[in-house]
Sequence to fold (261 residues):
Amino acid sequence: MKFPKLPKFSIVPKFSIAPYLVALATSVASFASLSSAALAQDRLERGGDPEEGPVNILFVLDASYSMKEKLSGEMKMTAAKEVLQNALSRIPNSVNIGLRVFGQNYSNLAQIDCQQTALLVPIGQHNRGAIIKSIRQIEPYGMTPIMFALRQAAEEDFRGVVGPKTVILITDGADTCGGDPCAYLNLLRARGIRMKVDVVGVDLAREKAAREQLKCITAISLGKYYEANSSTELIDGIGRSVDQAISGRVLPKEKPADAQP
Fold:
C-alpha cells in the first residue's frame, strides 16, 4: 500500500477540527466503494481483523525540548516518566505493549529533527523491564513530529499485529514539523485500518491551537483526550487511558477522597 509523501517541513499553523470531520465523512463514503478483495488483502497485510486477538498498547512519548518545562514543580518529562513506570504495573501480562519516543535528538536541521522518532521497545509481552529501562534513559531535546511518529506506529510498529491497537500519546504540544496528523488518520480510516489514538495533553490550558489538533486526532481515531495540567491529572489521564484500552470502556474519573457525593 502506497502512502502520500510527507509534506514539506514548516511551522505548524493553527488547526480547526471542523474540516477534518467533513473530510472524514467524505473518506468513509469513498471507502464503501472499495472492493471486498482489496479490503481483505489490506487486512491480511495489517494483521487481520483488528477487533479479534490480544490488546495492543503502544506508548508514544514526547521528548521535545518543551518537556523540560515545569509541571507541578517538577520537569514535565520527569513527571511523565514516573507516571508511565507506575502505569506499567497495572497492565496484565496478557496485554502486548511497546514504547516509541519522538524528539529525543536535536541537530538544528529540520529535515533531520522532524524525523527523530524511534521504537525503543517493540510491541510484545514480557518486556516491562526493557520499557522501564528505556523510559529512564529518555531526555527531552528536539521537535514534535507527531504525524511522522503516528505514521511509523501504523505502518511499522503495528504491521502484522492482530487485535485492537491503541496508541497512548503523551505530549505537551501540537506537531511542530508541518505534519497533518488528522489528515493522515483520515487516510487510515478510509483504508479500513483501525488505530485508536488516546492523547494525554500535558499543560495545554493556554494552548488552544495545540488542543484543537490533539482533540482532532482523538475524534478521527475514536480515541479519548485527557487534559493534564497537573501531576495528579497526568496520573489520572494515563491511568484511565490504559484502563479503557484494556477493558474496552471509558472509566469514570475518580473523585478526590474529600469530595462530596
